[in-house]
Structure formats: C-alpha cells, structure tokens
Design goal:
CATH topology of the largest domain: TIM Barrel
Mean pLDDT: 96
Largest sheet: 8 strands, mixed
Cofactor: Mg(2+)
Number of helices: 12
Pfam families: MR_MLE_C, MR_MLE_N
CATH class of the largest domain: Alpha Beta
Shape: globular
Number of strands: 13
Number of domains: 2
InterPro entries: DgoD-like (IPR034593), Enolase-like_C_sf (IPR036849), Enolase-like_N (IPR029017), Enolase_C-like (IPR029065), Mandel_Rmase/mucon_lact_enz_CS (IPR018110), Mandelate_racemase_C (IPR013342), Mandelate_racemase_N_dom (IPR013341)
Protein name: Mandelate racemase/muconate lactonizing protein-like protein
Strand content: 5-15%
Structural class: alpha/beta
Domain Mandelate racemase/muconate lactonizing enzyme C-terminal: 126-228
Amino acid sequence: MGKIATIEYFRVPPRWLFVKVTDEEGNFGWGEATLEGHTEATEGALDAMKLSLKGMEAENIEHIWQFVYRNNFYRGGCVLMSALAGIDIALWDLKAKRLGVPIYQLLGGKVRNRIKVYSWIGGDRPSDIKEQALIRKSQGFTAIKMNGTADLEWLASPSDLNSAVERLAAVKSVGLDAGIDYHGRVHLPNAVQLARLMEPHQPLFIEEPLLPGQVKETRDLRMRTIIPVALGERLYHRTDVRPYLEQGAVDLLQPDVSHVGGITELMKIASLAETYDVPCAPHCPLGPIAFAASVQADTAMPNFAIQEMSLGIHYNADSEDLTSYIKNPEAWRVRDGYVDILEKPGLGIEVDEDMVRKMSKKYEKERPWTTPGFVSAEGEIREW
C-alpha cells in the first residue's frame, strides 16, 4: 500500500476543478471538486486538506473520508464537501486502477448493463426550445431537462407561467421526456400553480420547486401535484437529506457526486433513499471526471433512475465540453437514451493530463466562472 505523496488541483475551462492524488509508489487517481461559482473557496479548502492528508494510506478511503469530515469541529457545507469529493473520487480511481478493476466492482458489482441519461436544452433564460430538443433527439437522447422559467418576481405574472408550460409542450411534441427545473426561482405563491398547469403535459419531474430548507412547504407541494418532485443538488450529506425523506417531501433524489463528498457519501445517500423507496437521479452538470464517477456509482446503485449528462450544456458553449480532457471520448456515445457502462479500470476514462495542465496554466490568469445571478429592473436580487 502507498501513502499519499501529493494532492494537486487544476482549474480548467469552462468551470471545472480537477484533482489528482498520487501515492509514494507512483499510483494516481483523478477526482473532480467542481463547485460552480465557488472555485477559489474550494481551492482554499483543498490547500488545507492536502497538508493534513499527506502521508496517510491512500487505500483507506473510508478512514480518510471520516478524517476530513469529522476531525474538525465545523463540518459539511458546499465548499468543504466539494473539496472532499475531489479527493474521495481520486482515491477510488487510484485504488481501483491499482487493483485493475472498475470502481463499481469495489461497490458490490454491477446491477445493470447500461445507464439511462438525459441532457440539457435552453439556458438560464430558456428560448429556442423546440430546435434544441430536436438536436438532442438526433444525438440519441430520449429525455432532456430545462429551466422552467427565467427569474421571477415574488408573485409571478400568469404570462410567465404560461410561457413555461408552452415550452414544455413544445418539447413533448417532438417525442422527448422533459424534466423541468424550477431552480428555486418559483416562490411559494406560484409553485403549486405552475405544477398544476404543467400536469396535463406530464413532465418527467419538477426539480427544486422550492428553495432548500423548505421541507414542510415542499412536502405540502408534493401532496398537491401528481408530478414527481426532485431535489438534492444543494444537500451535501445524509443529515441534509434525512428530513426530506422522513417527511415524504421528495420523489426523486438528486445528490451530486462533486458536492456530497464523493462516491463514498453518494452511495450512502442512495442507500438511505432506498429504504424510503425513493430512486436517485444523480445531479451532474459538470465535467467528465464527475460524470464518470457518477456512472460508476450508478452501475452499482440499486435504486438508480436516470443520470444527468452535461454534453452540450449552455455553460460549455464556446469552450471545452464533456468529451474534452479525456482520451476516450467515445465512452460518452449516447444510444437510445443510454450510455454504456465503463469497463476499464478505475473511473473508466483516461484523463489527458497534458491538456489538463496546459489549460489550467492558461486559465489561471483568468477569473474563475462566477454565478451570473439575476437582478430585476427595480434592483432587487432574484433567485438564479
């Protein structure tokens, strides 16, 4: 067994943060600690973690996870859990490659032979929906997700809600399933109203219909619509997820492998959800390492439903995409709404380290991607 020698991180466009862990024997693994809009804070957390983890046995993934999470009085939150995720994913990759097996073999083996996926259309203020839906269909997707609305007032105009329903109808007209992301933008007075308007068009789910922390309100909304309620990208640990499950506030859980502390915690969250008969659809509008880690977990996850895939997402426009930074981009070919299981050792992808280092060097001179945010004409902050 080898002890951790170095932990490096690489900020690369469009908005990703990759992590490489190398042990004293030269074995290495790759992880992703992307936290959209908080790159520099995550880098600071990684700086602290790499000092304390040097010299620890790289094989002891659970012990390292517990050490990072529990050894400090203050724990959890998006920054610390995303930094931990980058290290955790890299340790799983390192160990599985050293043993010559895919990560899913260390998680109990596969329970399915391919992975159902969906991709994005539209942008933060969605438009040209039907044309983009047809492109996704031609690429092999059978399901998409899109933002339901742009930014909204505390009490939205009926015209804003009706336009969201029209976009959903346009996507359904080309034969695709559609998840609708409220993105926490729709406040309580309109959240149920919009769901009721969408019900005749049968969306696959509505995501984050209310803001995180509004457990009771989300439960009440769920009881007033027949559309499955999905959430979880802004929940970072089992303790965050627990009240939603206990109160029956969620139909589809969406933990993000790069936000929940990596594969280790993702599998524990999925197991907790399984006891409530709640399926998981891991969140991942991120880079190829996070997606590969998600696919490895999906392969061994009994209650897996569908996987988010960032191929062609609007954040990647005019920049690198999901097939960048890896030497086997054919791994992400979509057929009939599915991607193949990754059979190669570790994450199943071969990271192009030369490109990562080159782009990181170039990108370090630029400001990291920041959340665009929404400000109304009246100057008030709106939910993005």
